[in-house]
Amino acid sequence: MHSTNLLLEEPIRMASILEPSKPTFFPAMTKIVGTLGPKSRSVEIISSCLKAGMSVARFDFSWGDAEFHQETLENLKAAIKSSKKLCAVMLDTGGPELQVVNKSENPISLQADSLVVLTPDQDKEATSNLLPINFSGLSKSVKNGDTIFIGQYLFTGSETTSVWLKQFPMMQVTEVKGEDVVCLIKNSATLAGPLYTLHVSQIRIDLPTLTDKDKKVISTWAFRNKIDILSLSYTRHAEDVRHAREFLSKLGDLNQTQIFAKIENVEGMANFDEILGEADGIILSRGNLGIDLPPEKVFLFQKAAVHKCNMAGKPAVVTRVVDSMTDNLRPTRAEATDVANAVLDGSDAILLGAETLRGLYPVETISIVGKICAEAEKVYNQDVYFKRAVKYVGEPMSHLESIASSAVRAAIKVKASVIICFTSSGRAARLIAKYRPPMPVLSVVIPRLKTNQLRWTFSGAFQARQSLIVRGLFPILADPRHPAESTNATDESVLKVALDHGKTAGVIKPHDRVVVFQKVGDSSVVKIIELEN
């Protein structure tokens, strides 16, 4: 039987905190997105990442070429096969990201209170006084007094690797020379490596969200590899999502690819509700948001945004939680608490960037984050959340949502071990997950046969993998010969496969109760099964 979760409102025995956590087949209900890169691209490391709890592999095209990422993807496929763990593929676009280009890769020392010129002339060598950038319109976008931040890939906020610049008004007239911007350095820092990101606080950069480079990557690499999720960097308007979806719709199977809007600045925040209505999910890019927002405001936006995602039934992904694990084996106390709070806020997934891409301990990072998530889930107040979600939806509910919420309530009342949901599109399973059941949801995806008048294909693989970023959903791709809509109460053979999977995973035991959600004809039904030996 599924144990009753302890609520934060209840007293917690200190002795129970000291008890070691028991290992489980599903490390946590909250999913983990790992960014694959130089430190995490071998078959062995990726296999270990999958076993540690990574369910989505992110490929960040703001750096690296298609050949490098293809080699990594081939290793991921081999790792999936050897570990027998499903994994979705996420492509993160570069977007209108401004970058400092250091072709020599020599360290650049910047001293506080000295001047530096930002120039779009990328043929010039980067020095302590001159930094080439990849954007010719900066001088037209900024004004005297604007703040500019330069930092390593995915800002760490560390004063030794990032620098604040203040545009210097007196020197601008004499040394701008058209497209150059003269800045006053506010803190000393050393820039090491070939590429640094430049962020202008609360200033709109006149560049398209989906750049020509992004379109080329999508129409070639993404098309060839049939990616599951597109992370749309620097989403600022709902129209950005609509434009990306229109572009994907013309690329064969990519019309099934989900689009997650990445909110990175105040412009995206201001249009959040409209963006949420268009996107399939939201990624809160707290690194850039932490530059645009005062530090004391970041948590407020996180809580508000995650709540809106929860009520809409769309995945919310939080980034930048354990930056220190890029170089250290353990997170700081504040970071561990931050991960737990992200779970308690209602996040579906935690996205790890630099921690796994170039971090020294990618596997350990995934493992520790998973353990923190699992502990936080034990004190998640599902009852309060359920009532809030039902009230938000209001009456009358749609037929499917009414049955989905009833399935969750029934599973809690009978203390079911798992909920088994038969689905073709994945919508029913996502609706069940929306109500945050405390037990795993085995989403049995039944493939559908479809044709484009030239060939017959089965759908289902996309839908199964895309559920790997939704809290509590664990997909199983069923035999396509089994219909999703049966005339029987349950399709016994498919149900047996799901039950056997649950038993193997250790989440279903003799005498457990299981809640089954399935469509029968034009109706959706919920069935409670009590297992025998």
Q: Please state the structural category.
A: alpha/beta
Beta-strand proportion:
15-25%
Helix coverage percent of residues?
25-40%
List low-pLDDT spans: 167-175
What composes the largest sheet? 8 strands, parallel, barrel
- Global outline: globular
Instruction: Please report the number of helical segments.
Output: 19
C-alpha termini separation: 14 Å
- Arithmetic mean of pLDDT: 86
Q: What integer value in Å does the Rg equal?
A: 24 Å
Organism: Nicotiana tabacum
Keywords: Kinase, Pyruvate, Transferase
Protein name: Pyruvate kinase 1, cytosolic
Features:
533 residues; alpha/beta; eight-stranded parallel barrel; seven-stranded mixed sheet; 37% helix; pyruvate; transferase
Task: Report on the architecture of this protein.
By secondary structure, the protein is α/β, with parallel strands linked by helices. A hairpin with a 2-residue loop joins strand 24 (513-520) and strand 25. The longest helix has 18 residues, at 66-83. The model is unreliable at 167-175 (pLDDT under 50).
What does this entry show, briefly?
With 533 residues, the chain is of the alpha/beta class. Helices cover 37% and strands 23% of the residues.
